[in-house]
Specification:
By secondary structure, this protein is α/β, with parallel strands linked by helices. About 50% of the residues are buried. Its EC number is 3.2.1.143. It is an enzyme of class 3 (hydrolase).
Amino acid sequence: MEGMENREDLKSMLPMLPFLPLLLGSSNLFWPSQVVKSLETLSKGPLYSKVDSGELLFNAISHIRDSLALPSLQPVAPFAHGGYALFFDELISRAEASKWFEEVVPALANLLLRLPSLLESHYQDADYLFNGVRTGLRLLGSQEAGIVFLGQELVAALLTCAFFCLFPVSDRGSKRLPTINFDHLFEDIYESYSKKQENKIKCIMHYFERICSSMPEGFVSFERKVLPLEQLPLCVSYPEADFWSKSVVSLCPFEVHSSGFIEDQSNGALEVDFANKYLGGGALRSGCLQEEIRFMINPELIAGMLFLPCMEDNEAIEIVGAERFSNYTGYASSFCFSGDHVDKRNVDGFRRCKTRIVAIDALCRAGMRQYKCTYLLREANKAFCGFLDQSNCDHHKSLFQDGGSQGSQCMETDKDTNVVVKDFPMDEAPSTSVEIAMNRGEYINQVIGYSDKKGSWCLDLEDKIGIATGNWGCGAFGGDPELKTMIQWLAASQAARPSVSYYALGIKSLQNLNQVSQWILSHEWTVGDLWNMLVEYSSRRFNKETNLGFFAWLLPTLFAHDAKMSNLTSTP
């Protein structure tokens, strides 16, 4: 058997080992023998394992955890056992429970038995799939731009580990990693029952039912995007306020939707996750807002919580390929699982579902400080980091018009560098900076090393991927909807996105958003024009020189007319 000294693929996963429940021998990954025995028993079904209730399932989970004997495996949440028993023994029907224990639990046990081989195969292939670009499972730490590609079967096995609460957690806090095991998800339903928590769990259990009946065979990618704080060659650095003020980039088309949801858009747009700086936010606890709901209906997103530490101000996370499995109704306390969803989106050249999601965390507890230029800049740069697509070089030309000094130059053309470029249909243009390197026929590290220099690549390819967004940071985080709307618009425009589709969802202060955006477009404003107007308004708002919203301050005549018409129609 090949020794560890010759297994470069396994050496590459050593930094990840403290965060996985497996053991590493001289030449392979493995479960302890007692764990294998327990999983094999579960895999044979309830007639053999006697596991036919939530209470007995939790006992089996506890036995497996004890058999791991990992020093970093801390106790589960105190009332998790009550949550597993409550959900499987009382909240779902006996028919559903029977299916779970007879079909799903045995299939999940078999999936866990395959985890060591799935991971070994992953590491054998990961760094050789795309011309040497590193894509293997690893911690993508702060300021570490990079990408991880996971097969959907491996994602399913990792989520099964989370359901069985097998991930070690003692080192996660020091690495600023979010919650990953499901014990708090179940504890919360027992400690403080709510309908929305029950339905969150139903979404995830439905995902497990689906993958156990038919395992998907595609991939999901998780990219940490970084705007470097220092000037680096061949990448766009973190802009200063002067960059925005002097921008001559035209604002892109802006479409307002008064109904519908971001996840239902059908134009292939990059969909914004109104994220917590810890990816997933309260998804695995009691949270049930926009981000948490997205993680419930697209549970493969949860896998990113395993290895992506919290985001800094100059970072975003882009996830491509997470399949949707559930439909739902409601929001927050009214959230309700409403059945199966068959994701009919096409698959790209990397075998990923064409669902592109970018997580950007807004300023928390915004209050009046959101009107200070420092925080305007923070929000604009955060959105810009998320929206920036290095596959299109045209925006680089715009960035440096008028002598702009921020950022850097575009890579030379293919003709000048003699780099072979893979041809793509227009609707399959690569959407992330790392993909660009993957698409080149030569190993791009000859030009610049991604992991070493945090570089990025761009090709002069036409890209039709717009932005689908909404009221980012305007709920629990306390952001000003009018301000946040404009910030996202100028960031998307600067990032050379062809359009913004905005889902306003009935916020009263945005009722005139379409009129305002069309007025701005009709006057051919640039990004710099809008930025400078936002700065002036915010200064006045911060200094209490106005208490008007941005729209009414910008277009008082329009709003005075609307107020007059409103008074006329309300007069008896």
